[in-house]
Amino acid sequence: MDYDVKDMSLADQGKLKIEWAEATMPVLRLIRKRFEREQPFKGIRATACLHVTTETANLMKTLKAGGADVRLCASNPLSTQDDVAAALVRHEGIPTFAVKGEDNKTYYQHIESAIAHKPHLSMDDGADVVSHLHSKRKDLLRNVIGGTEETTTGVIRLRSMAEKKVLKFPVISVNDADTKHMFDNRYGTGQSTMDGIVRATNRLVCGSTLVVAGYGWCGRGIATRARGMGANVIVTEIDPLKGLEAVMDGFRVMPMDEAAPLGDFFVTVTGNLKVIRGEHFAAMKDGAIVCNSGHFNVELDIPALEKLSKKKLAVRSGVDQYTLKNGRRVSLLGEGRLVNLATAEGHPSSVMDMSFANQALGAEYIVKNYKKLEKKVYPVPADIDKEISRLKLAGMGVSIDKLTKEQVKYLASWEMGT
């Protein structure tokens, strides 16, 4: 079997971690049991480019249980858990191409290895496989029947491709599912980002000023978790509606120019580039800590930070301290990559249970319906979203009410008024 992982001796350790995560992923377990019976992916080759974590491992096991010939590569050079990658190869027989800290050249070599079996399905977190197929490996496009996309950044890229009529197959936007973005982005990113900051720095959040750039679902989660830890939270935004929402939620809102001198911690979650630029780094107080929890590290203008600096020092694992020419020090976490994965372990498995249930069912939907779908980005069907919610509540031991016949009739009626 073809693979590239750091150290196969870590496989047993990775297997235990995968099993630990699986214990709080009841929805995916139920889907796997059905897939084992029905084999919806029999004869289907799938390439997954996702963060190689314990939760992803359970998704890969689910796809394989459904009959898929699956290959996995990393969607970020710093997010791979090397023991998990080894376990997938040794214990699950899944070709995996991922090494934490891999350079850019290796990253794209791993994508090439992952698509070497000529996939029918792509499964992305950031749209790198789709982009690579459309730019470098157009010869493989004729095999692809569709794909799924996990994150906001990838959906933005794919919608741009669809609008320009260059997207060659349909893609399900897992990120648009309520059971993904309302939970994964808000609660998962919120907790795991703060976890990454604390693990990397061991600094006290309580009493500090934390600046969140972007008030989408991820930004809301981070701002809420930071406030819960005692931080004074500032939000920066470019959307007046989201800015207004942040104000109404009790946060201070201002431009980054005004926030830069005030913050002790800075987190970007916008999906855009150069959100924190040279003029902002230059204005920061001595000791400021900067990180990114968006998909790509372009949210921080790192070349500008390097240009402003006279010295760079790795002061802790995952912490690079830049001494600026003005004498102030600014620390960058995780090389500006997703801090929740670069310096921590990513989202809790109970949250990823819903996200990866969407991935699994979205992939099944593509296989069953691709002949009827146009070459564009589709939301997760509403019935899938509701079914995942139902399964999750059942897995948590939570019951909800049902409409009575009288209530059903009332909601369907226009005759019954006040």
From TrEMBL:
Group of enzyme by EC: hydrolase
Cofactor: how and how many bound: Binds 1 NAD(+) per subunit.
Pfam family, one: AdoHcyase
Gene Ontology biological-process annotations: L-homocysteine biosynthetic process; one-carbon metabolic process; S-adenosylmethionine cycle
Known EC number: 3.13.2.1
Primary location recorded for the protein, binned into one broad class: cytoplasm
Compartments, as annotated in UniProt: Cytoplasm
Keywords, ordered alphabetically: Cytoplasm, Hydrolase, NAD, One-carbon metabolism
Domain of life: Bacteria
Pathway noted in the entry: Amino-acid biosynthesis; L-homocysteine biosynthesis; L-homocysteine from S-adenosyl-L-homocysteine: step 1/1
SMART domains, sorted: AdoHcyase (SM00996), AdoHcyase_NAD (SM00997)
Cofactor(s) in the UniProt record: NAD(+)
Protein name, per record: Adenosylhomocysteinase
Protein source organism: Nitrospira defluvii
UniProt gene name: ahcY
